[in-house]
Amino acid sequence: MFHLNRIRYPKPKHLKPTFYQSYTSQPPTIHLHTIKLDIPTSLNLIKTQQWALLESLTKSTNPSTFLSHLFASKNASYDVVYPYFKWSQTRFKVPHSLEHYCRLFYVLSNAGKFNKIRGLLGDEMCRNVIGRYSCGAVMRVLGNVCDNVCANSIIVDMLIMGCVKKGEVEVGFEFFDKAGDYGLGLSVWTCNRLIGLLVKEEMFGRAEFVYREMGKRRGEVNLMTFNMVINGLCKAGRLRKAEDVFEDMLVRGILPSVVTYNTLIDGYCKKGGAGKMYKADALMKEMVEKKILPNEITYNAVIDGYCKDENVYAGMKLFKEMEGSGLKPDVRTYNCLINGLCCLGKVDEALVLRDKMVENGAKPSLVTYNALMNGYSKKKMLNECKELFDDMVKQGLVPNVFTYNTLINAHFRAGDVEEPPRLHKSMLDGTVSPNVSTYNSLIVGYSREGYIEEANRLVDDMKEKGLKPDIVTYNILIGALCKKGESREAVKLLNEMSRVGLIPIQLTYNTLMDGYCAEGNLRAALNVMMRMEKEGRRPNVATYNVLIKAFCEKGKLKEANEFLNKMLEKGLIPNHITYDIVREKMLERGFVPDIDAHLYNDPITS
């Protein structure tokens, strides 16, 4: 804690006390007709809380002027100034000036009454006064009132903490920034709370800025600082930066905790992909080597990552390892695996795991039911899906929007177009509001059945309800029009996407190219490809597959061969569809593609 010298304020020259009266334990009897207004008498009245008498004595002046006299008095300690400050504010319903607040902060700071400063900063009237000024103006007033750096640091530190507690992230950040300009030191606790709020509000760049500034200002940092910064960077998907901060942590001699590792591991698992999961697995092994034992959160993060990466086998292996280590899998553990199995169509295995979950005392949740329903939906097992829905309701679980969306998809996949609109209506009549995904499910269902007008009506309906069509919506509509042989109409939707601020993805262009190719308009398909590249989207393997197949079907095998070579030259690795096209459309017709042995290279080394 800082040790502050008592701050003295110069006595105004115009103030000449008429007499001084010593304070006694027993307040003296005061006769109004014998008293002339002076500060010592007023101090005594304040100390003895004779507010009515004080108000009569000070009626010739105003509270602001009288408060200025108090601040200037030698004998005005915090237990005099603070009570009058509060009383006058309540009595006269007039907020004091910013300067008076700053002076009071200093008086209280000198006396070590930091709780009273926090109380003032939490007061609405105080915050309204400070809120009228910019952070820079507040800092200038603080500096003008007193140049005691220690006191300034404590007051600004509490100002920032007050902003954080009120959720005023912009103001808190600006005070932090200005504190650096004035050379003020801030506590690691306040800085950590500010970083936490910035991460919560997804202001990841600013959170990193606060962390970097703490280092530049030679302020204290601790394990909590690093954990919160790493968490923010992982949420922002900036995993390399997160690793840099992790390395900084080790350089400073701060040992990572299980929370540190869990945050990094979860970041890599959420990013997904074989490379990222390899890194997550390596981090898990590293923490074990450092005698930091993985907990349920660690295992759940990695299992979920493997399942989302469609590597359920690795997830199940880790599940058994978790049980062997003495940790008890929870509902989230089972849900990750059940969802992973259902996504792969292995519903029977998912049900076995659900039964094991119940045996081990973990009650299936809404997420469990939704995952199993999704699995049945993908296998077009409508009756089983409906049975799960009914059982869910019996168990007292309330279906959410994902539940209804899954059920709508199940009906469409089973060829039932009658029930989805009734489900949609029940959502509107009930407490579950349809979202964009609900409408996308309805639109794709009707589009597949050829009900384009109904699909368009749903688009208008979602717009009326304040929902904006997304990339998926447009891709569905473009696909439906192309399938119907109306690719020119689909181009209009592509243009509309740009107007509403949506950036088409590769699938959007590929769908349109496939539509033109199906109509035999190869030139239009090539124009779409040119537009795709011009708008910053690189053609992928699917793009070239569309063109290679279309040119082969037109009998233009040499041109198809050129596209095959272009794909290989760009470093794209052919997939099984490419091989099927080459075999069926070229080799079986007696045409051997000239590909400079590219196609037969090992994909790992090419």
UniProtKB/TrEMBL annotation:
Pfam families tied to this protein: PPR, PPR_2
One GO-annotated biological process of the protein: mitochondrion organization
GO CC terms of this entry: mitochondrion
Presence of the UniProt keyword Repeat in the record: yes
Keywords noted in UniProt: Repeat
Presence of the UniProt keyword Protein biosynthesis in the record: no
PPR repeats: from-to residues: 222-256, 257-294, 295-329, 330-364, 365-399, 400-434, 435-469, 470-504, 505-539, 540-574
Molecular functions per Gene Ontology: mRNA binding
Assigned protein family: Belongs to the PPR family. P subfamily.
Protein name: Pentatricopeptide repeat-containing protein
Species of the source: Artemisia annua (Sweet wormwood)
UniProt lineage: Eukaryota, Viridiplantae, Streptophyta, Embryophyta, Tracheophyta
